[in-house]
Known about the structure:
The chain is an all-alpha fold. 62% of the residues lie in helices and 0% in strands. The chain is built from four helices and no strands.
Amino acid sequence: MSLTIRKMQKYLKEKYKRTKPEDMKNTQRYFLKLIEEVGELAEVIRKEQRMEGNNIKGTIEEELSDVLYYVLMIANTYDIDLEDCFRMKEELNRVRYGHQLKIDDIQEDDEK
Length: 112
Ligand SMILES: [Mg+2]
């Protein structure tokens, strides 16, 4: 099953609504966590620690996921639809940098 940014945001919103509703507007905390995770990402990139098999612990794959998690959480605290924003921003960049490819030229594919 494909996982869209919109679905990830909805999942996290639902998860925190059920468990810690008081955390849902904690933008500053999520921002600090994001910076912390960016630091962890820097370290694993420097050490070139890639995932082997299904062991994600201490890898670039893990830290990229952590960074994405906090980006999504921050967007949720503002009720920002990141899928819409990414689409708009890519269109601006496409025009600005003269690229031909549009985001909807890419077909969604359930297979890896
Ligand atoms: Mg981490």
